[in-house]
Amino acid sequence: MSYGILFSGQGAQKAGMGLDFLEDPLFKNTIEKASSASHQDLIAIFEDKNGELNKTINVQPALVAFEIGIYRMLKRDTDLNIGGMVGLSLGEYSAMCVSGALDLENCLSLVSDRARYMQEDADQVENGMAAILKPDLDELEVLIDDLQRQAKRVYIANYNSPKQVVIAGEKSDVELAAKQIKEKDLAHRIVMLKVNGAFHTPLFDHAKAKMTKRLADVDFKENSVPVISNTTVLPFDKNWCEIMAKQLAVSTHFGSCVKYLIEHDQVDRILEIGPGKVLSSFAKQIDRHLKCSHIGSYAEYQAFVEEEHGIKG
Fold this sequence. Notes:
Blueprint lengths: L2 E5 L17 H14 L3 H6 L8 H22 L4 E6 L3 H8 L5 H19 L4 E9 L1 H13 L4 E8 L2 E7 H13 L3 E7 L11 H11 L24 H7 L7 H11 L4 E5 L4 H9 L4 E5 L2 H12 L4
Parallel strand pairs: 1-2, 1-7, 7-8
Antiparallel strand pairs: 3-5, 3-6, 4-5
Helix pairs in contact: 1-3, 1-5, 3-4, 3-5, 5-8, 6-7, 8-9
């Protein structure tokens, strides 16, 4: 039995996330250290009393700290056999830290700067994203290419699973693409997403350039567990600096990463860490035989520990 650990990305955040874990000393200590490293009150962001979770600059450090805190508890309380990890976009930073490539403080400092760079780019243009469900992918790619040749700024940002991709770009161009997809009957359904930016598109080239400079002096260690890159669909191998800058402005390939875990790391179980269960649903679309578990609340944490290992959380 080998687990693939999946870390949620931006968009999964929920008001109140993490508050039920704060009675655990290890989790609380993780959040306190992460708050210090990011120069933000992450507990206040968890509470979301003033809509803090609507902003990229707040969401990113909060979500990464939340996921790292849960993983640290699992390492303390269980002895999971972990074959590999995949984080969706931002979730790669959670994997970066817990796999040993970068310590907590430096990871959260890096994430906070990433969030600031991305917020600056997001504020420059009205962004849009749309989930395309059960697409005719070949025809969809042709349509997007055609629109780009017409100088429209719309792109395929996420290849999440065989049944879902996400397009992103300037809001008006995304809406035009969605209209044409519907008219040409190229998908079962189109869902416009509420987002703070058209992530993983050239609209974030400025953030990519800033991140390239920021990463230049970061000293990454060799990770102890394979982490599969959304960008290359290969394990990170002493190339974190190059890939984590590029990651901001190119498509993610989450579905292919999960397939890699199954085929190369003999993963037969999935544990998703983060709010929601979206990544588990993507994984099941890739291999319906996968047993998927999820931890996004303390009650779910306790249930996982008790069911899988027969001990109290």
